């Protein structure tokens, strides 16, 4: 656990970057610090590993005041990942990853073997081991940065805008990868971003800071979206927060109604309403419009593209947001529900989603 107790940072020129911060960061979870530019996120993060010294207040890591340890010893247990990865340009990928363990006394061969394993861990092919950072894409560099931070197996990982420099598609991949990694590794991760969507996607808890270094709200993403404490937080989390909050509510209980299907290549019947066309394994290929006049067999060219799919797995129902999105994005107005193998199991409507939402509100599951 990392605890900030009334921590203030006043820089030499008098700027108060962090003002009386009280924050408890849970072990094994991702805690995100988010807020507008200059609100003190990076300063807060760097105070944890003493790259920046607090002016007043106390920071405890596992109950021990960080001032009682030498910075080098403290940092051994704290990995650090920054934007643009911060790799050593003249060292190969493998040597970049192996640097810290070698510094800490691990034999070169063992450190390199471990570095190779870490390439697998962060989803990079081992062929990249001998390349230099400039020979990698931005996303690949970022993964090497994560591998390097993990090399000494620190229990705590500080990540400062690690994915901000890559394009949105790569960023999305890196975020998914981090969540996958975290489900296996269970590190204590403190993650800084200015992007509220990233904060909501990654954070078990999110601390919203306002300029002047004051904590505005510290809550789970679901609570932040449902109950922002004031106009600043409401404005910061965004206008469509009601819709996004549906992402945190299970669609368990949403009615999946029977849906008539046809198989590609089948002779077309006289279709009376929108009908889903599936392949031989019942995976959806598109819709046959109520107005279409197909003669002979149904071909791909006759189909209208479908919307997003809602995975209604018997063990883990998707979110209300996924169910509603499937309905809203479907050309027929009915979302296609599929099982874990992607086979059509039925349809969901916006009405059925709203009914479940209404019930959740009345039972108090949704704060109002
Ligand atoms: N070395 C420094 N000396 C003086 N002021 C500083 C120093 N470093 C940061 N600041 C100021 O402290 C405040 C907080 O900066 P910090 O970098 O922690 O914010 P941030 O929330 O991480 O910002 P950004 O999202 O823009 O990176 C800002 O007003 C900044 O100008």
From TrEMBL:
SUPFAM superfamilies: P-loop containing nucleoside triphosphate hydrolases (SSF52540)
Top-level taxon of the source organism: Bacteria
Keyword Nucleotide-binding: yes
Pfam families hit by this protein: ABC_tran (PF00005)
Matches recorded under InterPro entries: AAA+_ATPase (IPR003593), ABC_transporter-like_ATP-bd (IPR003439), ABC_transporter-like_CS (IPR017871), P-loop_NTPase (IPR027417)
Keywords from the named record: ATP-binding, Nucleotide-binding, Transport
Keyword check for Coiled coil: no
Domain ABC transporter, first and last residues per copy: 2-237
Record GO terms (molecular function): ATP binding
Protein family: Belongs to the ABC transporter superfamily.
Name this polypeptide is given: Osmoprotectant transport system ATP-binding protein
Organism: Actinokineospora diospyrosa
């Amino acid at each position: 656990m990392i605890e900030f107790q009334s921590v203030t940072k006043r820089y030499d020129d008098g700027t108060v970057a962090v003002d009386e911060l009280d924050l408890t960061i849970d072990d094994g979870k991702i805690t995100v610090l988010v807020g507008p530019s200059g609100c003190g996120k990076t300063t807060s993060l760097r105070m944890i590993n003493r790259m920046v010294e607090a002016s007043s207040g106390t920071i405890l890591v596992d109950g021990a005041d960080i001032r009682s340890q030498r910075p080098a010893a403290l940092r051994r247990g704290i990995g650090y990942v920054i934007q643009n990865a911060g790799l050593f340009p003249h060292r190969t990928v493998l040597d970049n990853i192996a640097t810290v363990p070698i510094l800490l006394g691990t034999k070169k061969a063992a450190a390199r073997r471990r570095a190779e394993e870490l390439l697998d861990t962060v989803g990079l092919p081992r062929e990249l081991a001998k390349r230099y950072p400039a020979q990698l894409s931005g996303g690949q560099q970022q993964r090497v940065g994560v591998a390097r931070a993990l090399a000494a197996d620190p229990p705590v990982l500080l990540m400062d805008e690690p994915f901000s420099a890559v394009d949105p598609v790569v960023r999305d991949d890196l975020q998914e990868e981090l969540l996958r990694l975290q489900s296996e590794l269970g590190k204590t991760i403190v993650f800084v971003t200015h992007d509220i969507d990233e904060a909501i996607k990654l954070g078990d808890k999110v601390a919203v800071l306002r300029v002047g270094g004051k904590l505005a709200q510290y809550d789970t993403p679901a609570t932040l979206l449902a109950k922002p404490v004031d106009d600043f937080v409401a404005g910061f989390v965004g206008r469509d927060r009601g819709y996004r909050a549906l992402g945190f509510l299970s669609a368990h209980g949403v009615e999946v109604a029977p849906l008539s299907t046809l198989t590609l290549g089948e002779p077309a019947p006289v279709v009376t309403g929108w009908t889903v066309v599936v392949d031989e394994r019942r995976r959806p290929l598109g819709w046959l419009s109520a107005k279409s006049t197909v003669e002979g067999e149904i071909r791909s060219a006759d189909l209208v593209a479908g919307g997003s799919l809602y995975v209604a797995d018997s063990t883990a129902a998707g979110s209300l947001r996924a169910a509603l999105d499937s309905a809203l994005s479907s050309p027929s107005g009915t979302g296609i529900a599929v099982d874990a193998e992607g086979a059509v199991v039925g349809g969901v409507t916006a009405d059925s989603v709203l009914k479940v939402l209404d019930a959740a509100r009345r039972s108090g599951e949704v704060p109002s």
